[in-house]
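Q: Fold this one first, please.
A: Sequence and structure below.
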Amino acid sequence: MSAAPAVTTRAAGMLLIHGAWQGSWAWDAWLPEMTARGWTCNAVDLPGNGANPERDAGVEITLQTYVDALSEAINAFDGPVVVVAHSGAGVPASQLAETLPERVACLIYVAGMMLPAGMGYAELVDASAADVPNAAGIAPYLQWRDNGTTTAVPAAAALDIFLHDCPHEAAGQAAAKLTPQRESGRALVTTLSAARFGRIPRIYVEALRDRSVLLPLQRKMQALVPGALVRSIDCGHVPQLARPAELATLVCDALAEIGIGIGGDGDTPASRPPR
């Protein structure tokens, strides 16, 4: 039996960031898996997602709005954390790492938007449309509201594009929880540097059956922002709901491979729940 990889960085916990039209609830099926493996996790609600109307009243939703909220969340941990970003959350997660590189032990993109500085996801889709069928993903199904400033996802489209391989009852519940998204919170472009963002270890979990961020687009982003440890999971756009235990093991094993462990006692992060 080979020796376990040495831990070079101890993480105080995980910060979980949901994608567009979602909330902290998007991680509910995954949290018990990570807790069983010893991780302390905080799943946040991004500003403007409907979870805290009083907090968000009159607030302009920008990339900086997200980074400010995530900075507050990350500072609640006593030490660097692993930042896990699903889908569109990849953009604010990257900018968070640029802003607070000393507080981010690792970035994990789950079917996420790992884009280079200055590029928006719509630009990537437009550039790929000729050779990637259905590259637009959910976009053709969106309902535009409030004079084009907000979008919403119809439940039927969510079930077909996001949740097609998730457990039936859980998929229905997730589709019903989706909330309108301000477009200013989706059309985001980062400003990144090699000295700050570029020094953070990254893991990319590609979803092989994704109908939203299609696999060819995931792989184009990996090529545009090279250096991530890439792992694959055979499911659609929401691995944390479709295959939570498999995703948890995959993530923990990948962290162990790059030498990131749980803060506190012990030699390595667990890859399996205690028996």
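Q: Good. Now the second chain.
A: Here it is, same layout.
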Amino acid sequence: MSHILRFPDLALGELEQEVLETLWHEGPLSPGGVHRRVGVARGISVNTVSSALKRLQDKGLLEREKVSHSYVYTAVVTRAELQRQLIGAIASRFAGEERSGLLAAFVDVAEAGGEETLRKLEAMIAARLTEGE
């Protein structure tokens, strides 16, 4: 069993993650639309999906607009931006002055993705170094 560190502003439950994935893939949706794509398969109510949407809005990850008698929710961050925020939160919270442990952990994660992932990381680092020159 894995233990996940929870950061109150960025912590996402499984339902919240699936809702975000759906909005990234489908675009703006009403609670009913999200429920049809996520809630039906999970056997949960529209109210449960609406609660997840509201939590994501409160975390600043969604915005909503009133359309007719319902709200339509839109993701306001991309997957890449959320990844940056999560990694940034972990880095600022645990890295302190000593960053080598954080960097080693990041390389370990990349290594778990295989040689191709490590090569992509190497290319990204080389590109950033070239930009800085």
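Q: Anything worth noting on the second one?
A: Residues 1-6 have pLDDT under 50 and may be disordered.
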